Amino acid sequence: MRNEIELASCVDRASASKAAGTECTVSSRLQEERVRMGFTQTELAEKLGISRTSATLYEAGKHLPRAEVLIALDGLGADVLYILTGKRAANPEVNVDLLAFSFSEAKRQSSLTGESPSDRVVVDRAWAIYGALQECAGSTSFQLPQPSRS
Length: 150
Hints:
Number of strands: 0
Helix content: 55-70%
Distance between the termini: 22 Å
Structural class: mainly alpha
Largest sheet: none
Oligomer: single chain
């Protein structure tokens, strides 16, 4: 349940910042990567060999992570390029299950509104959903929610 709440919050923040054209910060991208990898602040701090206070200060934007911390994050599977620049690493792997869920969700959303969108609209919507889920939850520690039946 905790990951679902954090995921929803993350998707909302990512959508709002993209809509407003605002840039996310290193601290917010670090938090997104932590959530994507499925760690709490305490768990990530332990894996990085830092205090929970340091992890909190990084995510609050009070301090920037040291090089050693970034190297450790990379070793855990974080996209350090994204954390630092906001640009995802090249050639990301496509998670087939996540993509299938995204298409299912795009079709479900269309049926809820009663619209009959073109295939292109459904594809665009599915990729937007996929991108938001991938940014916030990643592909390894996130369990796909089951689409609701309406």
